[in-house]
């Protein structure tokens, strides 16, 4: 490939969709990302496919890079090894691997929480590479690029710059060496705003906890056992949750995001100064969201909107600016879309679908949510689903959302029950209407969607009926589902 659109792909760790100014959050400060949304497209209906481990970032990043479901892309799909494997199957092609084969220079910076073999076949360069899930942001163990692909621990060195600045510096160093002779794929994977949330000043003091608006779904504790109540993330704050403590967590989270936003701004300014901004496809997303007190939870080990809905911003050649769409998407759709925007052939191995047509439509005014939903449905998405371990599954059609919880017999954790939310009337998921007899047709319809999705993707729980349990309020024994 002699031509081709260069790509800067940015992925954050724990950034939920709600925590952007462009998403309507009036407290968080993300002017750079908001400007990207305004000058490009904000795909606000994007959810993650899920994960079979509490470290959701590893399977989620595998979904983003392969365009495949976790049940196809990840080696660890046997329940006995779900909690241990981060490996990507050798037969699963990755986005940078395909771009590299097409003539792109592929360069990585930052976090790669999957196996080193999949990294080695994807990238021909890189720096400040981090092969773990998390670390002290001020003491980051990183490695330079290893042509052998082995990345032995003895090559690590501790960097004592803040991780977000460390990774941004390395990204800019790469960009400053590009002369435009060949297209590149620059992958920058941040560890922010993941805890420990220790932003540098002046960002650390930017938000007064007492002045922050709190979401209406804060609870002192989750009302039932969701199957993973003792995971590390849930121990980051006291139980029952205390408002003052949650305010401090939220202030620190926003501080990390404000600092991250400023560092993304440095990359944008570098692209502009080198005359590459208008010709480069810029993508910003995250591996998953985070609770921080919502529903009485702290982590991402759940399938509520705050944890499964992620930012997805795209700006570049051919993308109509100012497009904010609620079209239903999964993070397995990102790779085939970026591949199409880069001019690569169709991706038959992908489970995801390309939504490039939603970005390339001729400008003609704002696109209504109804029109966006119609277009997305025509492209194959009238619902999206998320899996979490063998404990939770969810399906949403954009308005209605069904969550199925499972009790794990091997250790007795979890609860056999359902939740049903009307996201249009109740976007914070505060009112479970699953016991309303009038909503039984909705329950049945969503349950069929979820059952079909689980069967299609080879979900090991597909053999367990969705509605063959006692739902809150007495909807029970629907043997047909």
Could you describe the 3D structure shown?
The protein has twelve helices and 17 strands. By secondary structure, the protein is of the alpha/beta class. It has two domains: 6-378, 3-Layer(aba) Sandwich (Alkaline Phosphatase, subunit A), CATH 3.40.720.10; 384-463, Arylsulfatase, C-terminal domain, CATH 3.30.1120.10. The chain has an eight-stranded mixed sheet, sandwiched between helices. A five-stranded mixed sheet has the order 4-14-15-16-17. Strand 5 (105-111), helix 5 and strand 6 (125-130) form a beta-alpha-beta unit. Helix 6 (163-175) runs parallel beside helix 7 (243-273). The longest helix is centred in the middle third of the chain and has 31 residues, at 243-273. The chain is globular and about 65 Å long. The termini are far apart.
CATH homologous superfamily (4th level) name of the largest domain: Alkaline Phosphatase, subunit A
Strand order of the largest sheet: 6-5-9-1-10-11-2-12
Mean pLDDT over the full residue set:
92
Number of DSSP-assigned strands: 17
Provide a concise account of the structure shown.
The chain is an alpha/beta fold and 481 residues long.
Explain the layout of strands and helices.
Blueprint: E1 6-12, H1 31-39, E2 41-43, E3 46-47, E4 50-51, H2 57-66, H3 70-73, H4 95-101, E5 105-111, H5 116-120, E6 125-130, E7 140-142, E8 157-159, H6 163-175, E9 184-189, H7 243-273, E10 280-286, H8 305-308, E11 312-315, E12 323-325, E13 329-330, H9 334-341, H10 356-360, H11 369-378, E14 384-388, E15 392-396, E16 400-408, E17 413-422, H12 440-456
Parallel strand pairs: 1-9, 1-10, 2-12, 3-13, 4-14, 5-6, 5-9
Antiparallel strand pairs: 2-11, 7-8, 10-11, 14-15, 15-16, 16-17
Helix pairs in contact: 6-7
């Amino acid at each position: 490939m002699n031509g081709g659109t260069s790509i800067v792909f940015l992925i954050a760790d724990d950034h939920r969709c709600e925590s952007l100014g462009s998403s309507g959050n009036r407290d968080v400060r993300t002017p750079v990302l908001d400007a990207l949304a305004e000058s490009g497209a904000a795909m606000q209906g994007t959810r993650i496919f899920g994960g079979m481990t509490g470290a959701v970032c590893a399977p989620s990043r595998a979904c983003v890079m392969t365009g495949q479901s976790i049940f196809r892309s990840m080696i660890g799909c046997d329940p006995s090894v779900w909690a241990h494997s981060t490996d990507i199957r050798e037969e699963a092609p990755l986005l940078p691997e395909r771009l590299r084969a097409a003539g792109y220079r592929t360069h990585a910076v930052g976090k790669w929480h999957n196996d080193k073999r999949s990294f080695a076949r994807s990238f021909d360069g890189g720096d400040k590479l981090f092969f773990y899930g998390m670390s002290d942001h001020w003491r980051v163990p990183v490695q330079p690029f290893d042509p052998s692909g082995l990345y032995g621990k003895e090559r690590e060195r501790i960097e004592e710059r803040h991780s977000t600045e460390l990774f941004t510096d390395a990204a800019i160093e790469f960009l400053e060496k590009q002369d435009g002779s060949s297209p590149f794929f620059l992958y920058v994977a941040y560890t922010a705003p993941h805890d420990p949330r220790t932003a540098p000043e002046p960002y650390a003091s930017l938000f007064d906890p007492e002045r922050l608006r709190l979401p209406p779904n804060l609870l002192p504790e989750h009302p039932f056992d969701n199957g993973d109540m003792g995971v590390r993330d849930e121990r980051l704050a006291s139980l029952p949750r205390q408002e003052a403590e949650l305010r401090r967590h939220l202030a620190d989270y926003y501080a990390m995001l404000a600092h991250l936003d400023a560092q993304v701004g440095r990359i944008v300014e570098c692209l502009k100064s080198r005359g590459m901004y208008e010709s480069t496809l810029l993508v910003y997303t995250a591996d998953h969201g985070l609770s921080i007190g919502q529903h009485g939870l702290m982590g991402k080990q759940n399938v509520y909107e705050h944890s499964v809905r992620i930012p997805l911003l795209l700006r570049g050649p051919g993308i109509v600016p100012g497009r904010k769409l609620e079209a239903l998407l999964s993070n397995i759709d990102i790779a085939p879309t970026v591949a199409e925007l880069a001019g690569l052939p169709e991706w038959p191995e992908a489970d995801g679908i390309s939504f490039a047509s939603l970005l390339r439509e001729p400008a003609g005014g704002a696109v209504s949510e109804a029109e966006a939903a119609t277009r997305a449905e025509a492209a194959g998405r009238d619902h999206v689903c998320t899996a979490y371990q063998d404990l939770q599954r969810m399906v949403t059609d954009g308005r209605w959302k069904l969550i199925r919880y499972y009790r794990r017999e091997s250790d007795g954790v979890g609860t056999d029950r359902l939740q049903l939310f009307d996201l249009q009337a109740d976007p914070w998921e505060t009112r479970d209407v699953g016991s309303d007899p009038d909503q039984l047709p909705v329950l049945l319809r969503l349950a069929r969607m979820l059952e079909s999705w689980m069967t299609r993707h080879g979900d090991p729980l597909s053999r367990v009926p969705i509605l063959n349990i006692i739902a809150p309020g007495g909807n029970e024994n629907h043997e047909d589902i």
